[in-house]
Design a protein that fits this description.
There is one protein chain. With about 80 residues, this protein is mainly alpha-helical. The protein has one domain (about 10-75). It has helices spanning about 10-35, 45, 55-75. The longest helix has 27 residues, at about 10-35.
Length: about 80
């Protein structure tokens, strides 16, 4: 048995969603910064040859995904 509340709230799931949101936000933000300035080439978006020519779109999609993950994490709050 878990420690889930009456709505199935699981604090571990909320933390996982927040962690994934932070990772997606950092990767998307770094990708956009690199496209604009040429700095921060450590993002995974630029390491994947599959995305050649579409790095900006992928970075924006990661930022949008991050906000969706943060919204999902917030909706899992008890109360």
């Amino acid at each position: 048995m878990g420690t889930a509340g009456p709505r199935g709230d699981d604090p571990g799931m909320k933390q996982l969603l927040e962690f994934l949101g932070v990772v997606a936000l950092l990767q998307g933000g770094a990708g956009l910064v690199y496209e604009v300035t040429g700095w921060l080439r450590w993002s995974l978006v630029h390491r994947l040859g599959l995305l050649d020519g579409n790095e900006v779109y992928a970075s924006v999609a990661l930022v949008v995904l991050a906000f969706a993950l943060f919204a999902a994490a917030e909706s899992r709050k008890p109360g």
